[in-house]
């Protein structure tokens, strides 16, 4: 086994095991600022990038490939008389709802200037900043005065044909010429503090990952309740690209972690190193 593979495994174990193994030191004081290692914009960027990986994998690997095998996806997927899974936007909405149930004060929303659901249309400052995002696709970080929350907006791109086709064909759409690569909207993340400790940063990552697993498990539970056996794919290690299959929640989440964990740890270490360099420089100048 080569060094890079060993390193990748170690990184995954670190990030996956932090919550269950108590790998983050307890904070001595909730009001202390000395343990605030990470700027909120850095952590929002980290979790937004992991969200991009998750949504791309779900959109392409589950929805796109699944439709080719006969799997169905619908905005009313949780209705008793609908035998289907969640569309990508509804998958994200489910993650957001699960995060709100946790004790982590992390907000997650998906908005657009041409949303299918009118309630998701950007307003005010976010609408103005979204115009910039559509131009250069660069994140926007700011303080939301009305809500007293630090906010980060990231471009949400049309990464797969199912997204484009669904939005173009939807009966409530206000735009019918979406194409691959378009900025369809933006994911908006919010947090009440301008900086986070190690424990808080890992809490944010775990809250997002737990939400992802919860929604995927809800999808599998829906499948188990399907009344027509021929509409039920085989659940296991295989993906829709191989046939009428769906991966278990563990297989799906493990795939996300393999793609995201090394990058996430690198970002955490980089942010910590920047803080230590700054502290050393400040001490030297005093």
UniProtKB/TrEMBL annotation:
It comes from Aquimarina addita. Residues 110-190 form the Tll0287-like domain. PROSITE patterns: PROKAR_LIPOPROTEIN. InterPro entries: Tll0287-like_dom (IPR021796). This is Tll0287-like domain-containing protein. The lineage of its organism: Bacteria, Pseudomonadati, Bacteroidota, Flavobacteriia, Flavobacteriales. It comes from the Bacteria. It holds the Pfam family Tll0287-like.
């Amino acid at each position: 086994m080569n060094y890079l593979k060993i390193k990748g495994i170690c990184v995954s174990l670190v990030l996956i095991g932090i919550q269950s193994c108590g790998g983050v030191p307890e904070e001595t004081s909730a009001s202390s600022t000395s343990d605030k290692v990470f700027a909120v914009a850095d952590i929002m960027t980290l979790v937004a990038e992991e969200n991009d990986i998750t949504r791309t994998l779900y959109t392409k690997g589950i929805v796109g490939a699944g439709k080719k095998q006969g799997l169905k996806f619908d905005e009313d997927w949780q209705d008793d008389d609908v035998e289907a899974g969640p569309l990508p936007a509804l998958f994200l909405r489910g993650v957001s709802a699960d995060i709100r149930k946790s004790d982590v004060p992390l907000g997650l929303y998906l908005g657009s200037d041409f949303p299918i659901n009118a309630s998701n249309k950007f307003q005010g400052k976010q609408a103005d900043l979204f115009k910039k995002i559509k131009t250069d696709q660069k994140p926007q970080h700011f303080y939301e005065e009305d809500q007293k929350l630090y906010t980060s907006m990231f471009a949400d791109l049309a990464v797969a044909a199912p997204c484009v086709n669904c939005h173009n064909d939807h009966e409530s759409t206000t735009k019918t010429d979406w194409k691959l690569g378009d900025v369809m909207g933006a994911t908006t993340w919010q947090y009440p503090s301008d900086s986070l400790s190690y424990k808080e940063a890992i809490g944010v990552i775990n809250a997002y990952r737990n939400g992802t697993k919860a929604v995927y498990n809800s999808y599998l539970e829906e499948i188990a309740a399907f009344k027509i056996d021929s509409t039920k794919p085989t659940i296991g290690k295989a993906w829709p690209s191989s046939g009428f299959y769906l991966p278990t929640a563990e297989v799906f989440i493990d795939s996300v972690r393999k793609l995201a964990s090394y990058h996430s740890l690198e970002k955490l270490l980089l942010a910590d190193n920047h803080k230590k360099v700054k502290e050393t420089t400040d001490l030297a100048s005093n």
